[in-house]
Amino acid sequence: MVVTAAEIAASVRAGDLDPVQVTKEALDRIAAADGVVGAFRRVRAAEALEEAASVAARPDLAALPLAGVPVAVKDVTAIEGEYASHGSVAGPAALFTEDGVIAARLRAAGAVLVGLTRVPELCVWPMSDTPDGIARNPWDPTYASGGSSGGSAAAVAAGLVPVAHGTDGMGSVRLPAAMCGLVGLKPGADLLAEGGWFGMSVHGPLTTTVADAALLLSVLASRPSLASVPTPSASRVGMSTTVPLLRSPVPRELVAAVARASDILAAAGHTISTSAPRYPSTMVLGMTARWLAGPAQQARDFDFARFQRRTRTHVRLGRLLSRAGLVRESTRARWVARASEYFESHDVLMTPTLSHWPVKAGRWHERRWLTNVLPSTRLAGFTGQWNFAGYPAITVPVGRSVRSGLPTSVQLIARPGGESLLLGLAAQLESANPWPRTTRA
């Protein structure tokens, strides 16, 4: 039986589980499986055991929301004594002398930070491979686990850790969560924005249950009330399976997942209608400009000559767009006005999370920029616009593909401040349609 983060923490608080033993077991799972899964860039084995012993000795143990829970953190996180590579050999390798906000909040809550998970260079792509490893989908290792939080998703789906931290700038929590059959929540920009990519990037949880997503979100946001998952009142749910503006074809089984989720929510008393926002034609240009210019801005602290060739192209294009003044607040404002208009008559929008199936796992970092762009654009048609708007969105597993066995999922979006509503609806989907939580289940 795979134990959840909430169950581990409750047992540790009650004195029924030893944090050191919990951590040892997690490290054993990582040692046994990560050679195939490729989830971690760095496993903090000795450090994690020391942290677990410190947690066990804390006088406030009985009050810690993540007491003794092994957590994987994305390799963009400031952790004392570590460096964040951002998937690159080109960046600074000086060790942090103190924890950043995310690590500090996790530690304060009693979590044990077992390792840093693999990301693509500068977190640009929805596939997470680096020169020293490939993050693979635990359900079928011939497929990528997604990105840029692909290592975090792989670690959770393989049952190596119960929960993981990620960041999401164009779908980087939701896409790997969908590919690996997890719950992945992108909070609104007003809750957990990290400032990256001109405000599009936010921190969020990847978990196997809705309760764990709420628990980890409450810690990351330092808002304990978010740990309680409400039962939502009757909501107006708009449903759309058409890729915004591009209208590219979506695989039948991904569309069917939305129909299945619609039936469940309708049976729970929610009103379902087929509708979508009026997406402005400038939306794609606006969010693409930020996707290019954001990493280019970050690259100022890196050695350009040591970047992968796809990254060098990306950074050059981003710098051109920045100099041309194409990162415009007016473009975002136009889209936010349209999104606000939609949510005047709807409480939630539901779409597929993926607009195509995941790509095969491989050494994508060795390929040209355009070779990476085409499949990335093909599968991420439903996600980036909500980073651009700053609205919260959640990925919820629905089933499995009959043909490939890969997970299927839906994405739910709400207006700013709607994280608890999304969690409540996700919990109703989970209750009526439970999913296999990890490959170890």
Helix-strand pattern: HHEHEHEEEHEHEHHEHEHEHHHEHHEEH
Query: How far from one another are the termini?
Result: 6 Å
Q: Could you name the CATH class of the largest domain?
A: Alpha Beta
The percent range for strand residues is 5-15%
Please outline the major beta sheet: 11 strands, mixed
User: CATH superfamily of the largest domain, please?
Assistant: Amidase signature (AS) domain
**The CATH architecture of the largest domain:** Alpha-Beta Complex
Overall pLDDT confidence: 97
Number of domains: 3
Name the structural class: alpha/beta
Helix content: 40-55%
**Low-pLDDT windows of residues:** none
Radius of gyration: 20 Å
Structure annotation, total helices: 16
What's the total number of strands?
Answer: 13
**CATH fold-level label of the largest domain:** Amidase signature (AS) enzymes
Q: Order of strands in the sheet with the most strands?
A: 1-3-2-6-8-7-12-13-11-9-10
Shape: globular
Q: What does this molecule look like?
A:
Helix 2 runs antiparallel to helix 3 (45-56), helix 11 packs across helix 12 (309-323) and helix 11 crosses helix 13 (329-345). The strands form two sheets. An eleven-stranded mixed sheet has the order 1-3-2-6-8-7-12-13-11-9-10, with helices on both faces. It starts with a helix and ends in a 9-residue tail after the last helix. The chain has helices spanning 5-13, 19-37, 45-56, 101-108, 150-157, 174-180, 189-192, 196-199, 210-220, 252-267, 283-298, 309-323, 329-345, 369-379, 384-389, 419-432; strands at 40-43, 70-74, 112-117, 129-130, 133-134, 163-168, 183-186, 202-207, 236-239, 271-274, 348-352, 393-400, 407-414. The chain has three domains: 5-227, Alpha-Beta Complex (Amidase signature (AS) enzymes); 236-278 and 334-432, Amidase signature (AS) domain (Amidase signature (AS) enzymes), CATH 3.90.1300; 283-323, no CATH class. Helix content is 40%, strand content 15%. The radius of gyration is 20 Å and the shape is globular. A hairpin with a 2-residue loop joins strand 4 (129-130) and strand 5 (133-134). With 441 residues, the chain is α/β, with parallel strands linked by helices. The mean pLDDT is 97. The chain is built from 16 helices and 13 strands.
